[in-house]
Write a structure and sequence with these properties.
Blueprint (H helix, E strand, L loop, with lengths): L1 E3 L3 E5 L12 E6 L2 H17 L4 E5 L15 E6 L4 H10 L6 E4 H8 L4 H30 L1
Antiparallel strand pairs: 1-2, 2-4, 3-5, 3-6, 4-5
Amino acid sequence: MITKGNCWVWSIREENKLADSSSSGKWLLSGSVEYLATLFHSIDQLVEKGTIFRAKYSHKENPWHESLPENPPVLVVYADDTTRDQTLEELAQLGITPSSWKYDAETDKDWENNGKLSQESERQRLRLFFREIYGHIQEESNATKK
C-alpha cells in the first residue's frame, strides 16, 4: 500500500518480514521525483505480492521536513542478505539499476552524533535557513528601494 508522509512516499505491506533483520539494508537510486514516481507503482506491486520487502522515495515537497534538503530525490528498496540478490534481480526486470547498496547498520552509524550524514544534514539545514532569511532580507531591501 502506498502512503505519503512529509518527506517520503512509502510502499509497505505489514505482512512482509525480513528473514534476517540483522543484515537489513537497502538498494539506493537517485533520480528526479517524476522518474522515481513512475517506477514506484511497479515496485509497489512487488511489495504487495511480497516479492520485495519495502520501499520508499523522497518526494522533496517539504524541504523544512527533510534531513538532507539539498540531496537529490532517492529511491530506497529494502532487503536483507537473504533477499538482497533477488531484490536486485526484480529491480533489473523493471529496468532499474540501483547505484549502491548500504546496510542499515552503516546508515545508523552515519546518523549518530558527528556521523557523516548527521553533519551533512546540519550543514544543509543551516544553508536552507540562511537562504530563507537572506531571501526575506533581500525582498525587504528591494521593497524599500522602490
